[in-house]
Write a structure and sequence with these properties.
CATH topology of one domain: Rossmann fold
CATH superfamily of one domain: Vaccinia Virus protein VP39
Bound molecules: S-adenosylmethionine
Number of strands: 8
Structural class: alpha/beta
Radius of gyration: 18 Å
Order of helices and strands: HHHHEHEHEEHEHHEHHHEE
CATH class of one domain: Alpha Beta
Largest sheet: 8 strands, mixed
Distance between the termini: 29 Å
Shape: globular
Number of helices: 12
CATH architecture of one domain: 3-Layer(aba) Sandwich
Helix content: 40-55%
Length: 259
């Protein structure tokens, strides 16, 4: 599922939701130990890895999708190792990294428990995991997109979902329990909030480029419905506009765990 959902979407992701996910970077990368060996798992465009390098970390990265890895390579340069590798099977040795980051990744994997255990495996004793996910509360952008679909008489597609016995509760407690079960000694979590400012055409690159749930929904529609959706998007986004940008109140779950 992960590979399929993230294939051929890297450029559209870079233009759209990468900006949303990057908002967590100051929190996720706060108080890095000096010279920390850091692994960025599910690195996407490499924005977090770049920021971590700027903060003095020695960074490696990986992503399940080869196009994402190519974007990260282009951003980070050849001296930073970036591998094509997917949870729950990373190629790295046991116990190598002081900090292992998965920024909005555990909410996309097919096997969250095995994936969290893999993050623990590659962390050094005394090291930490730093993870973020979207919570189980509706997002502002999701609500706008839902309103666009309803106003356009769009059909509801089948969204890929995990079987119940593989899933976990998308909350601070749920992610904390996942990391504890994976072998973390202690966990600490909180809710992070911010405003996501995005240009309308950049946001629209997500559905039309096939990114995440909005991409699945877009691809299920006829060209007529897609045309109506863009018109309804331009109408319904008006109350959220601040100058040229849409402003979405955003929030995420952040949990770190000690190993
Ligand atoms: C929402 S994006 C987050 C990207 C990046 N961490 C960021 O903050 O911008 C999810 C990323 O996880 C990657 N991904 C999905 N499933 C994965 C897996 N099983 N193992 C590693 N990466 C995965 C996707 O290719 C995508 O780059």
């Amino acid at each position: 599922m992960a590979q399929q959902l993230w294939s051929n979407v890297a450029d559209a992701y870079a233009r759209s939701f990468a900006g949303l996910c990057a908002s967590s970077l100051p929190v996720v990368l706060a108080d890095l130990p000096p010279g920390a060996r850091l692994l960025d798992v599910g690195c996407g465009t490499g924005a977090l890895a770049e920021e971590a390098i700027g903060r003095g970390a020695r960074v490696s990265a990986c992503d399940v999708d080869a196009d994402m890895v190519a974007l990260a390579h282009a951003r980070l340069g050849a001296s930073v190792p970036v591998a094509v590798a997917g949870l729950p099977d990373l190629q790295h040795d046991d116990g190598v990294f002081d900090v292992v980051v998965a920024n909005f990744v555990l909410n996309h994997v097919d096997d969250p428990a095995a994936s969290a255990a893999e993050l623990v495996r590659v962390a050094a004793p005394g090291g930490s995991l730093r993870t973020t996910i979207w919570s189980n509360q509706p997002t502002a952008q999701g609500q706008l997109f839902r309103a666009v679909m309803e106003a356009s008489a769009a059909i509801d597609p089948q969204f890929p979902a995990l079987p119940e016995d593989k899933d976990f509760v998308r909350s601070v407690e749920g992610l904390g329990d996942l990391l504890l079960a994976a072998g973390c000694r202690e966990v600490e979590g909180r809710f992070v909030t911010w405003d996501w400012r995005v240009l309308p055409d950049d946001f629209w690159a997500a559905p039309t480029g096939g990114v995440a749930g909005v991409g699945v929904a877009w691809r299920a529609q006829t060209p007529d419905v897609q045309g109506r959706m863009r018109a309804e998007f331009d109408r319904l986004r008006q109350p959220l506009m601040d100058g040229e940008h849409i402003v979405f109140p955003a929030s995420a779950v952040m949990v770190s765990g000690s190993v």
